[in-house]
Design brief:
Distance between the termini: 43 Å
Number of domains: 3
Strand content: over 45%
Order of helices and strands: EEHEEEHEEHEEEEEHEEEEE
Strand order of the largest sheet: 3-4-5-7-6
Radius of gyration: 25 Å
Number of strands: 17
Helix content: 10-25%
């Protein structure tokens, strides 16, 4: 990665898209002033979350100097500061999770020659507001987007889409069997927004990485023939029925035959005889002949 690159985009916080190279401090200064004039949002890498910054603020009595805790970010060939009042984090622990990751920022103040060096002051809080307002009409069910993984647990992922938190369940990560923690924090992924609902003050948006990708059935179903048995991995179980995944990610609805020994479990490897295919559901239907493990 070129250390003198900043990523200019309002796609999602941390999205490393549209790189812009800053040649030196003079170039960085000129671009800072230009980007400040039109509220350009960029994604900058966090270098420290426990620094300080001294900058001036406009008051009724004129300009006054202010010093506060700050986050240090890499701005091309130089460093910038995000004052805690402009950081948009609930607490210091939340900010610490972003160490070495990219966060959204917009130019806020440029202060030349403070203690022998210029200070580039950014605002994350303002950047997130700009992103959300610019994309509010685009974040609708059916839209595809580049998202960034923010947090993860055993059931799925919190992803950032245009400065908003959205939920990616494990079941919608891929067409194949997905395991918790398969995706990395900070990883960029393509998603499709599947639902966008509001109940009172609570907004719940669910996204799918699986539905943003080509369906494996369309790509590989011609490799499989009905009446033939193939290995598969069970992805979900309900009694003696469930879903399994053939090599290549093609889904098959399965039923355990009465004479098959063993118990179906998620993650089990089985031998499935394909009986027929459903073009409507883009999957095969078959019987489990043998549970391999």
């Amino acid at each position: 990665m070129n250390e003198d690159v900043v990523y200019v985009n309002i796609t999602s916080e941390g999205a490393q898209l549209n790189p812009q190279t800053l040649d030196d401090e003079r170039h960085a200064t000129n671009m800072f002033l230009m980007w400040a004039s039109n509220d350009t949002v960029m994604q900058l890498q966090v270098m420290s979350t426990n620094d300080k910054v001294k900058y001036y603020v406009n008051t009724a009595n004129g300009q006054e100097w202010k010093e506060e805790n700050a986050i240090t970010v890499k701005y091309g060939p130089v460093f910038g500061k995000i004052p805690w009042s402009e950081a948009g984090f609930a607490n210091e622990r939340q900010a610490e999770r972003y160490f070495n990751r990219f966060i959204s920022a917009v130019p806020h103040h440029f202060i030349p020659n403070v203690d022998g060096e210029s200070v580039f002051v950014f605002s994350r809080q303002r950047a997130l507001e700009i992103m959300r307002n610019a994309n509010v009409s685009k974040v609708v069910a059916g839209a595809t987007w580049t998202a960034v993984i923010k947090r993860r647990n055993d059931y799925g992922y919190i992803v950032d889409v245009s400065g908003n938190d959205m939920w990616l369940p494990i079941s919608l990560v891929d067409h194949k069997v997905s395991k918790p923690y398969e995706l990395e924090i900070g990883e960029m992924i393509e998603i499709k927004i599947t639902s966008n609902t509001t109940e009172g003050r609570i907004r719940r948006v669910i996204v799918s990485r699986r539905d943003a990708k080509p369906n494996p059935y369309d790509l590989y179903h011609q490799k499989y023939s009905t009446g033939v048995s193939y290995p598969a991995e069970v992805s979900s179980v309900s009694g003696r029925t469930g879903m399994a995944v053939l090599p290549g990610g093609v889904m098959v609805r399965i039923r355990q035959r009465e004479d098959t020994r063993g118990t179906l479990r998620t993650g089990s490897h089985v031998k499935v005889r394909l009986n027929r295919k459903s073009e409507k559901d883009k999957m095969f239907i078959g019987d489990v002949e043998r549970i391999l493990m």
